[in-house]
Amino acid sequence: MSKPPYKILVVDDSPIIRRAIIAIINASDELRVVGEAANGHEALDLIARLKPDLVTLDIIMPQMGGLSTLKHIMIFHPTPVVMLSSLTQDGASVTFDALRYGAVDFIAKPSSINSEPIQSQANAITQKIITAAKVKTNIIQYVRVRPKADNFLLPKKICKSLVVLGVAEGGYGALLKIIPRLEPHPTTTYMVIFYETSTHVNSFINYLNHYSQVMVQRLQNNTTLEAGVCYMSLGEEYVTLHGGQEYYTAHVSNAPFSSRRGSIDMLMFSVAETVGKHSLGIILTGAGTDGAEGLEEIIRVGGVAIVQAPVSCLYKSMALSALNACEAETVVADTEIAAEINYFSSNLM
Fold it and tell me: Which of 120, 214, 261, 309 lies at a 20 to 30 A Cα distance from 147?
């Protein structure tokens, strides 16, 4: 007996957008639209009656906007939510807010309201909705963070230990649960390889930096690493470390075969070679297998390995591959990883 399709509620104030999204969703045998709403008030009434498996939710709506609606959903009717976002320069921040408030993922809204550009994204939209509909509501969490003080400035410290995080699909939500909860440590540097093709990664870095006690910045070529800083690089870049005796310089170059994922492995192998037992490797949500071999190498040289518990991953392949390849010391949900990192740093003093 085949599994019944996931029940979807579509919420958007634009009838044209609603029709386009509904057509895409109903074209999949795994999904079925059970209702539509033009604002948050209508959505909350329908959620209570229809009990959908997932809600697609526009951010900008009259009467009750997407963020207010999302907060009400998480309090009164916990349900996986995928935001429909314009992801403009101004819209990126509110999209990241939505992920902090409990949204599972977002779909980029096309700049034009006619259905043609939406149809061109049909496969990606369908896959994101199917993936998000499988998320268990008990792993959805509101991330409480405070903005960094305006006069916040860390003294420059040399790097003695290094934490490497490898993340791909679903990474926005995972990193929002980790980076803002890191405690700046006087000898620990943090590096992130993020498989994200969006041009809005710099906006995400600025957002993380605003809400994190560590400094968050894009990694530039020939940067001398400092403790208390989180450097982020994209999966289309290869990063290697050079130097030693607590002074490490990062070399950044374009990956020669960007379609063959290997950037996480590349950095982890380099970190294992240069930092050795003072390294911590972490594999988070994502598709593919990148990072499994690199994590195994970090363990081999005496470093520590953490893998995000697959049940808490939006995309499980990377975590499962890492667990198949090596014996990770810790397997926990993304909500617990920051505490593990802080513990690692404090025990290296």
Answer: 309
